[in-house]
Amino acid sequence: MTVNPILKTKIAFVASGSPIAQAAQAALTSQYDGVAVENADIIVALGGDGFMLETLHSTQNLRAPVYGMNRGTVGFLMNSYSAQGLRDRLAKAQEEVINPLHMTATCVNGTQHKALAINEISLLRAGPQAAKLRIHVDGKLRMDELVCDGALLATPAGSTAYNYSAHGPILPIGSDVLALTAVAAFRPRRWRGALLPKAARVTFDVTNAAKRPVNVDADGVSVKDVKQVDVWSAPEIEHRILFDPGHGLEERLIREQFA
Questions:
Q1: Residues 165 and 64 grouped into a single domain
Q2: Name one GO molecular function term (predicted).
Q3: Which end of the chain is more exposed for a tag (fewer CB within 10 A), N or C?
């Protein structure tokens, strides 16, 4: 008798700190003989989108794809939760591959900080006055001065998050495009951003950083008092995410635009 390969699949369960996620992790680990993350064929993340991003970052050097189940408040990257029939769902799941963004931030004091972001890199004013930014794309000056509350560069996977709230465009998954979006632009008042090739390298210079301080955030990694932020795509890093059939990122992005 041939054993169904999915029955041999080793599953690791990780969870956010919320009681409901912790309880789900304990129950599922017992029910499905959960293993350590480093030994898993598939990693199941229990929580919300924030925890999903944490899991993708922490497991990016592993080959196991990540399947999320929503035990949080936001679940754009998550599948619905059910303790029953999980192995069958995993066998039928469809894979999406996304690439993060690299960030190198240089602070006013000369220190440098590097980070990766799956959703977006966002610059935001840190004081009462609007930020003043100068923007270069691939070394060419494209905007001498953007006066705003901030600006961000978003991936297709992150385009429905902060980018969409800032009135940026939703980008189809698989499109080789990044969204450069202003946050409450004051000058030029009607500038709503730009679509850039995925291979573009974007440099934000903070003018008069001492008087108009700016912070930058990359998927929860925050750096204060920056004077320059350099951002580019990281095609060498692949995050593999599993979704139930008919509920992948492409379908979710389309559905979001008609909500």
A1: no
A2: NAD binding
A3: N
In terms of domains, do 22 and 47 share one? Answer: yes
Position 103: which residue type? Answer: M
Alpha-carbon distances of 48 from 15, 16, 69, rounded to whole Å = 9, 8, 8
Domain span including residue 41: 5-98+238-256
Look at the block and give the residue holding tokens 């979001």. 256
CB 228 within 8 A of CB 105: yes
CATH of the domain at 119: 2.60.200.30
Query: Binding site membership for NAD(+): which residues?
Result: 49-50, 119-120, 149, 157, 160-165, 184
Catalytic residues: 49
Q: What is the pLDDT of residues 75-130, one digit of tens each?
A: 778 999 999 999 999 999 999 899 999 999 999 999 999 999 999 999 999 999 99
Phi, psi for 33 (deg, rounded to 5) = 55, 55
DSSP type of residue 32: T
Residue type for 9, please?
A: T
